[in-house]
Structures are given as structure tokens and as C-alpha cells.
Target: 4-hydroxybenzoate 3-monooxygenase
Amino acid sequence: ENTTVVIVGSGVAGLTLGNFLLRSGIDCVVLERRSREYVEQRQRAGVIDSRAARMFREWGLADRVIGGVPFEPVLNFRIDGETRPFKYVTDDLGDGRFCPQQVLVRNLIDVFVSDGGDLRFEAEDVAPEDITGPRPRVRYRDSSGVTRTITCDFIAGCDGDHGVCRASIPEEELTRHSHEYGYAWLTVLAEAPANHQSMMAIHDRGFAGQFARGPQASRFYLQCPLDTAVEEWTDDRIWGEIDARFGEPIAVKGRISSKTLVPLRSVVHDPMSYGHLYLLGDAAHIVPPMSAKGMNLALHDADVFAAAVRQQVKEQDTSLLEAYSATCLKHVWNYQAFAAWFTDLMHDAGDVFYHGEFRRRLARTEFERLYDSETANRLFGEFLTGLN
Ligand code: FAD
Model:
């Protein structure tokens, strides 16, 4: 079997790339380890920034794939129990959206499949082979247990942080840059309607966040130590901690449907390609969730890679492909810098345990500057909208 691009992984990066290639008339096959049901229900990110929304519009897909509600240019901070709405200045009120990741994924799958895309679920033991040779291959076992091999021009590794693609690159060819923030988030999904799109609390018990996930549910985040265990967090303890950090009781404390611990870290792998294998999204980089940029960076990579492949296939011009890693890394580091700054700011400003009073005062000063300086406000807005 032959194709132009084998895409490993059908998360946001892989599916977006697949759709962009399909619209460009370029053959591709998407291989996904999980079932369609599993992928369509996996809940994660919730923010599509203005840059990403504009990208879907430019590829002619915005109406078909983007769901959710428009993003209001207001963040609600709660500082020591007092609400401080923050309105950011932006020239592009554009199209940013609160769109749950699984809604985007579901729409991307629907569009890809109904437009004739080749998407194979439950592909086991996916293995990229001969990635530096002239015709790389991807071997896998299909859902009926038959081993298959697809020969291709390019392999797109869109299989996340624990995938096989990055692992198939010799270790000495990649540099891993990483930073641990020293704490985790307990992320909780609950049937609790939010009367705002977002609320972020700075408090000396630690950071807390609430983000609307549709009209009836919210995703809550609670800063906690790295060595805590999910079992230590009973529902009562969670609600008590949320009330304390927000400084007022949450009106509806509905059923909690999931609790997960996420250590906050930043990771960048450099370069983002090796031979004919290109890494996209979480396979290449992780940003702390405070920034809401993980999904948006994955979408950016898909945009850059699809345009590069199109140029190579249609015009035999390899320049964009050769620049792929450098182009993406420049963007990734820009948003890593933003993500690290915002993560430190929001946690240090409430911190009495981790970094101490000096860092706390610096963070509070930077926080006030967002309100006092239009320049600071504008820069923050540029990062939130993804237009920096
Ligand atoms: P993924 O969405 O992870 O997709 C990778 C795909 O590859 C998956 O479908 C996987 O099943 C498949 N795969 C893996 N291994 C193989 C294999 N060997 N063979 C075939 N297929 C394989 N970002 C935000 O912006 N805001 C948030 O609030 C937020 N919360 C998050 C919460 C959690 C618990 C996690 C894990 C991430 C969160 N993120 C958030 C990050 C965001 O979800 C990711 O950055 C985004 O999903 C990256 O997309 P991706 O396509 O690169 O990877």
C-alpha cells in the first residue's frame, strides 16, 4: 500500500492535518490506536484561540468544525476572595471560542470521514520504519489482527507525548528541554453550571480555576503538591477547597465525574523532525495547562506542516518542509515563555509555601500591572488570542 503522508494519531493535530491535506488533494492515511468512541469522548482542553479559529477559516473549515461559544475578552480573577474582572485590549476580537476539545475532535472526524478521508481506528503496534531512507514505511496491525505496511513520502508523528513516533528517533538526535513547576493540578469535571466563562482564584491556599464546559458543567482546577494522590481528594474536600479559594461557596455542587492529577511542566524537543518523520503537537512539546495553549500549538503545527507538504507536492519546493522545525520551534518557544510567565504569576501570587514572599510580591506587582498599563494589557491580550 502507498500514500503520501501517514499520520500517526487522531488527536487535534493529526485530524486537522488530515483534513487540510484532504482539501489540498494530497493522499494520507490516519492511524489511531484507540477506538472512535474513545477518541470522541476524551475530555481535555477547551479554548480555541483567535489564531487557530482564523486558520480554520482560511482552510475553509471553520463552519464545519468549530463549535462552542465565542470567547469574551474578559478574564475573571478572584484575588483573596474579591472579584477583579480583567478586560483585555485586542485588535482582533475575532473568533476565539470556548469549544471543548472533544467537540472539535468529533467534528474533525465527521468532516474527514464524510469527505472520503482514510481513518483507521484500533491500529495496534504502529511502527515507523526506514525513516531516513527514500521511502519510509509504517507497519501496524489492523483491528482484525492482520499486519499491514504502508509506504509513504512523509510520516507525521501526531501521537502525543507517549507515542511511538518520537520514540523511534535515535535519542542522540533530539534534545529535550524541560522545566518542572514543582506542583500539580487536580482537575475535576463536575455537574456545576458556571455563571461566567472563566474564574481564576489567587489565594494563599493555592490556585483554583473554574471554566465552563457547556451550560451545565464546569472543569475545576486546584493547585496541589506533586506527592498528593487522587484518593486523598474526596468530593467533600474538593468542594471545601474550592469554596475556600474562591472565597464564596459554589452555588451548585453537582456530581463529580472525573478527577485527574496533572503535574505542571514545560517540555520542548528539538528538532521537530528527523529524516522523513515530522513531529506535531504534544509529540514535540508540552505547555502547562494554565496557558490554555497546548491544543492551539498542536493546531499551529498542523497548519505549518500541511502548507509545507502542499508546497512540496504541488510545486516540488522543499523550502517550507526544511524550515518546518525552525518555524514551529520559534512559535513554540514564544508560547512557552508566555505559559511559564503566566503559570508562575498565577501560582506565585498566592503562594506562601513554594517560593516565598519575595516571588509573591513580584507576582502581585506584575498582576496589577495588567490593570495599570495598557501596554502590558495589550501584550497579554496578544498572547491570549494567539496573535503574538
Ligand atoms: P493528542 O490529542 O494527545 O492526540 C494523540 C493521539 O495519538 C491520540 O488520539 C492517541 O490515542 C494517539 N496515539 C498515541 N499513541 C499512539 C500509537 N502508538 N499509535 C497510534 N496512535 C497513537 N490544553 C489546553 O490548551 N487546555 C487545557 O485545559 C488542557 N487540559 C488538558 C488536560 C489533560 C488531562 C491533558 C492530557 C492535556 C490537556 N491539554 C490542555 C493539552 C491538550 O489537550 C493537548 O495539547 C492536545 O491534545 C495535543 O493534541 P495532539 O493532537 O498533539 O495530541
Q: What stands out?
A: The chain has two domains: 5-72+97-177+266-342, 181-264+358-385. The chain has ten helices and 20 strands. The first strand starts at residue 5 and ends at 8. The domain at 181-264+358-385 is CATH 3.30.9.10 (D-Amino Acid Oxidase; Chain A, domain 2).
